[in-house]
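Try this one yourself first.
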């Protein structure tokens, strides 16, 4: 039976559930000693006797404890009490990227700002003396605070590269686990859609698998839809392995960055998250052409640059027509008039045709 509000785990009192995933259930709790709210990630009791799951749970705690970065949720400790085992983590207020994307595409500037923070977090993790890869980057594992700060959550599938078995030792039996208990359907679809081709094939992975996943997440941010979708995990994985990503709906300004993230051959992707972050930093200035054409209440909307161009063409046409219709100027004519001797000219007028004085 899962813990309920009021349950005590050592100095922590559970307040309310926050969510659930393949690696356990997450609760909001209060630290009675330090008087602060925290997040407790609790392993289900039914799985506590599973040595493999317990080993993964322990590894998650160790991996998180080795990471200290402003864009990675912090770990405070490991707690075991009343038959429960939990990771005590920083409580990150805000909303997941998954929730934000449900409301539609994120503006390019905002999506790029989020992507740069994610890339910075992974650059830090990948560059540690004992490099760490996440292997489960997806919108549901990225929290955005009310101030726009990104926090990467859930390193449940992360693995130090030093512990990665050589490719020859990776067989189908060691391929990524997709089904985990009663939340299998949501977890399968949520995870499979962001897997790199090499991960989907069960091959050894390195930091470039996270680069692929970031490309998929950035695509989803700027388009508001899944890049790889399907009703079954097998269908999604087949699309990842066999089909080329369709990027026609991606704004032109960010398309080259996403395209290189999503090259099936890892050797042809960006070499590192640092490269991805630099590429995002060097994007050309925003323009109206970044936004896709959207239908408005009175029909399809027209991009502002097209409106400006149309007005320019119209003005040029009007000027041309006016020039063609204006009669040519009359040639200059000069006359000499001899005034009678002794006469005085008080005033004079010129006829409209300019011929008479």
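Now uncover the answer:
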């Amino acid at each position: 039976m899962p813990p309920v509000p009021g349950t005590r785990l050592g100095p922590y009192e559970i307040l309310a559930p926050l969510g659930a995933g393949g690696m356990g259930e997450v609760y909001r709790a209060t630290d009675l000693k330090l008087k602060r709210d925290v997040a407790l990630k609790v392993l289900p009791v039914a799985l506590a006797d599973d040595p493999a799951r317990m080993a993964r749970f322990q590894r998650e705690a160790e991996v998180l404890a080795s990471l200290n970065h402003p864009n990675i949720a912090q770990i405070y400790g490991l707690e075991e009490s009343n038959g429960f085992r939990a990771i005590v983590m920083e409580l990150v207020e805000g909303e997941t990227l998954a929730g934000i994307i449900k409301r539609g595409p994120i503006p390019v500037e905002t999506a790029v700002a989020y992507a740069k923070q994610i890339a910075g977090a992974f650059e830090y993790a990948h560059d540690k003396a004992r490099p760490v890869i996440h292997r489960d980057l997806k919108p549901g594992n990225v929290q955005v605070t009310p101030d726009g700060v990104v926090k990467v959550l859930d390193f449940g599938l992360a693995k130090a590269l030093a512990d990665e078995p050589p490719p020859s030792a990776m067989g189908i039996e060691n391929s990524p686990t997709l089904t985990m208990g009663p939340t299998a359907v949501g977890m399968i679809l949520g995870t499979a859609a962001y897997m790199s081709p090499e991960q989907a094939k069960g091959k050894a992975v390195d930091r470039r698998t996270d680069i692929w996943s970031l490309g998929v997440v950035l695509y989803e941010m700027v388009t508001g839809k899944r890049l790889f979708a399907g009703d079954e995990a097998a269908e999604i994985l087949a699309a990842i392995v066999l089909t080329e990503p369709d990027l026609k709906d991606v704004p032109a300004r960010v398309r080259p960055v996403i395209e290189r993230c999503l090259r099936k051959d890892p050797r042809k992707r960006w070499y590192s998250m640092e490269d991805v972050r630099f590429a995002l930093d060097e994007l050309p200035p925003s323009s109206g052409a970044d936004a896709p054409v959207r239908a408005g209440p009175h029909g399809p909307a027209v991009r502002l640059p097209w409106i400006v161009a149309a007005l320019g063409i119209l003005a040029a046409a009007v000027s041309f027509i006016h020039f063609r219709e204006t009669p040519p100027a009359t040639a200059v004519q000069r006359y000499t008039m001899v005034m009678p001797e002794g006469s005085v000219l008080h005033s004079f007028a010129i006829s409209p045709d300019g011929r008479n004085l």
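Discussion: The first strand starts at residue 8 and ends at 9. Residues 160-190, 291-311, 325-330 have pLDDT under 50 and may be disordered.
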